[in-house]
Amino acid sequence: MDDQKPYSINTDVRFNPLELIDIPGIVAANDEEWFNQTLSKVNDCVVRLGIVRGEFHWHKHDDEDEFFYIVDGKFYIDLEGKTVELNPKQGFMVPKGVVHKTRAPEGAVILMVEGSGVIPTGDE
């Protein structure tokens, strides 16, 4: 991540219930390399939008699972011992406690569903 801009992580809920969420509009307005925005809260979970290019650091979430759904682009999840490649309309769940690193060398748009208490940068 040395040659990449810092992460832009916004954990505030941006949209209220019954409010339209225009993902293509958010993507078009974004100019950051690694953007993460909490879109809405659904029960005890949140839906986050990631507009990413480059690599995230190795991390884990001790108490929460994390689900990734690829909207656009190619997205990789590196796990200890293997890499999962995800294309548009594919999803993958990383269970709590599993160390992982995500990356999108050419850029990707992803949706993440996770517990509202998840710290996006991982537990220390």
Structure description:
The protein is mainly beta and 124 residues long. It has one domain: Sandwich (Jelly Rolls). 6% of the residues lie in helices and 49% in strands. The chain contains one helix and eight strands, in the order βαβββββββ. Strands 1, 2, 3, 4, 5, 6, 7 and 8 form an eight-stranded mixed beta sheet that branches. Strand 5 and strand 6 form a beta hairpin. The longest helix has 7 residues. The chain is globular. The mean pLDDT is 92.
Tags for this model:
Jelly Rolls; about 120 residues; 1 helix; mainly beta
The largest pleated sheet is described as: 8 strands, mixed
Number of strands: 8
Specify Rg, calculated over alpha carbons.
Answer: 14 Å
The secondary structure category is mainly beta
In angstroms, what separates the terminal alpha carbons?
18 Å
The count of domains is: 1
What share of residues is helical? under 10%
Based on the structure, what is the oligomeric state of the protein chains? single chain
CATH architecture: Sandwich
Instruction: Summarize model confidence as the mean pLDDT.
Output: 92
Low-confidence stretches: none
- In the CATH scheme, what's the topology name? Jelly Rolls
The level 1 CATH classification is Mainly Beta
**CATH homolog superfamily:** Jelly Rolls
* Outline type: globular
Summarize the helix and strand pattern as letters.
Answer: EHEEEEEEE
What is the helix tally? 1
Strand content: over 45%
